[in-house]
Amino acid sequence: NTSLEIKMSFYIILFSFFFSYTFAQNNKQTAFSFDYNHQFPIGNLANVFGDNSSVGVSFMQQKEKNFFYGFQANYLFGDDVKDSTIFKNIQTSNGGILAADGTYANINLFQRGFDGYILGGYAYHPNENSLSGIYFSAGIGFLQYKIFIDTENQNIPQLSEEMKKGYDQLHNGISTKWDISYRYYGDRNNFQFYVGTNLTAAYTQNKRSYSFSSNQYNDDLYQWDRLLGINAGIIIPIQRKNDEKFHYY
């Protein structure tokens, strides 16, 4: 896809300039953070899944002119799979699925996935003597998700580990993430936290060549998957600069 290649090249060049400029500055703070993110699917993704959650860890280093960069990784999970027809070809007339022993199997469907990003951004501090303020960031990375089929260790030949791949709708692809958050750093204690909102936009493709649900080959087209999130987390500083002195925690 020529358009995608042009966009990705632009992002890579932009981030290269950003990092080269940022690395030349002295450190203002270095920190890890752990957060919880509640996400709402938009567009095509909302037809397959309901809202989901993610937990993640990130690393951030802020420079003296308030530019920062970092890395982030998240694990996605949810229990709202809207597509109730994926097993229609192996269900009995009353909608059940038989296990090898002839009894009805108990099957649960979940959303599972992960994403990771290289981030860059700018921090606005109303009080320049404090690290508290509004942090804007953008990132580029990778997103993957699928329908996780839990058979609870039952012997179901039509849903063996290999056969599940024909139903799980595994998608992945290049992803971007945009985030705005308020970060609070306590001056008299070690309490640091943040709250914010974010938008994930990923260009993904179905990685399974054949669908057992529709009994046909999947096309190789890409689609835009978007997630609107609300997050909160705690900050664990490694290094902070205040009045030209470093404080270690």
Give the structure's gist in a few sentences.
The protein has 1 helix and 11 strands. It has one helix at 2-23, and strands at residues 27-42, 52-63, 67-78, 108-124, 133-150, 171-185, 192-206, 210-211, 216-217, 222-242, 245-247. The strands form 2 sheets. Strands 1-2-3-4-5-6-7-10 form an 8-stranded antiparallel β-barrel. Strands 8-9 form a two-stranded antiparallel ribbon.
Provide structural commentary.
By secondary structure, the protein is mainly beta. It contains one helix and eleven strands. The protein has one helix at residues 2-23; strands at 27-42, 52-63, 67-78, 108-124, 133-150, 171-185, 192-206, 210-211, 216-217, 222-242, 245-247. The strands form two sheets. The protein has an eight-stranded antiparallel barrel. The protein has a two-stranded antiparallel sheet with strand order 8-9. β10 and β11 form a beta hairpin. The longest helix is centred in the first third of the chain and has 22 residues, at 2-23. The protein is elongated. 25% of the residues are buried.
